[in-house]
Specification:
The protein has 355 residues and is α/β, with parallel strands linked by helices. 44% of the residues lie in helices and 13% in strands. Strands 1, 2, 3, 4, 5, 6, 7, 8 and 9 form a 9-stranded parallel sheet that branches. Helix 6 links the parallel strand 4 and strand 5. Helix 6 crosses helix 7.
């Protein structure tokens, strides 16, 4: 006998199992989506953090880079403020080209460029430049003591200057005082006998004098206008050829530690060889500035002296207080010669430099 079976409904546990499976699948999908979103957010945030660290908040140029040529140091005036346009959302794909460009820029900065640009954030290191020295010029102005008015323009000369004062004149002592007060180097301009037989002036040294007489006259003249740094000869074409005159004269130079400048009023002067015999250094004139007193002639002498100084290291130029245009021409030429690399000094400075 068959037993009649009742219709079987779906078991409740089975329904619950299916509902549970669908819920777990949804949760798992949501978690996966959340992880993906978080990873994307963290990736974009990390990129901007790296980008900010590398570029200091400016995406247009690397750290420490100066603006490109033609750009202004400060941004131009933007004009009236406009509302910001709506920007599409930035994605990682959109940022990749900019990141690649930034990396290439950093690599170029680290490795140098073909134009030799300085690495970002550093200053160029330049070795110290040696001074541009092309030669030394020593200017001497003779015959001070005759006229104080003629002396004044030379006292105003802006550079070093040696001024030699004649002894025994009404303005000798006052001229010497003014020269010292102006900060110029003071010399005695010692009169000495010329070949033409003319009187060289008060306190002259002449051939035929004994060594004692030579020293006595020289010391007297030095004391009159002194203290001085040295002395040079006024005229003296005959006396400077005579070793019997030059030896006692240079012995005073040696024993008193005074400089001597041979004005070379004659080529056959005994000054250089007598100085070698005594073991002392003396200076010698190279050019007279004002044999012709017009501006062009004076400038021509300066040009010749400039070339001599560049070739031989130094040149000595002698002019005179009575030359009417000399002070103005020297003052005009002085800054140009300095700019060209020439150094000016006094006679004592020249001798101390060993030139």
């Amino acid at each position: 006998m068959k037993t009649k079976q009742k219709p079987v409904k779906n078991p409740v546990p089975e329904r619950k199992s299916r509902k549970k499976l669908r819920f777990e699948d949804g949760v798992r999908a949501a978690l996966i989506a959340g992880v993906v979103i978080c990873a994307a957010v963290l990736g974009v945030g990390g990129f901007f953090a790296v980008r900010s660290a590398l570029f200091g908040g400016d995406a247009g140029q690397g750290p420490g880079l100066s603006p490109a040529a033609g750009e202004r140091d400060s941004p131009p005036d933007p004009g009236p403020v406009q509302p910001d346009p709506v920007q599409p959302p930035v994605t990682g794909t959109d940022l990749l080209p900019e990141l690649d460009e930034a990396i290439r820029g950093l690599e170029a900065g680290a490795g140098g460029t073909a134009s030799g640009a300085v690495p970002p954030g550093t200053a160029p290191v330049q070795p110290p430049r040696p001074p541009n020295r092309r030669g030394i010029l020593a200017l001497v102005i003779d015959d001070a003591g005759n006229n104080l008015r003629e002396l004044d323009p030379f006292l105003a000369f802006p550079g070093p200057l040696t001024i030699a004062v004649l002894p025994g004149l009404p303005n000798s002592v006052e001229a010497a005082r003014r020269i010292r007060n102006a900060g110029k180097e003071l010399f005695l301009h010692q009169p000495m006998e010329p070949l033409n037989g003319q009187d060289p002036g008060p306190g002259a040294i002449k051939t035929g004098m004994s060594p004692g007489e030579v020293k006595e006259i020289l010391v007297k003249n030095l004391n009159e206008v002194g203290p001085v740094m040295g002395f040079n000869n006024h005229e003296g074409s005959r006396a400077t050829m005579d070793p019997l005159i030059m030896k006692p004269l240079l012995e005073v130079s040696r024993d008193s530690n005074l400089c001597f400048l041979d004005s070379r009023t004659i080529a056959d002067t005994a000054g250089p060889r007598t100085a070698r015999e005594l073991g002392i250094a003396i200076a010698q004139r190279d050019f007279f500035l004002d044999n012709e007193q017009d501006r062009e002639s004076i400038l021509a002498v300066i040009e010749a002296a400039r070339k001599r100084a560049e070739q031989n290291g130094s040149a000595v130029l002698i002019g005179h207080t009575w030359s009417p245009r000399l002070a103005a021409v020297l003052t005009e030429a002085y800054p140009r010669l300095l700019k060209e690399g020439y150094t000016f000094t006094t006679i004592s400075g020249l001798l101390f430099l060993g030139k």
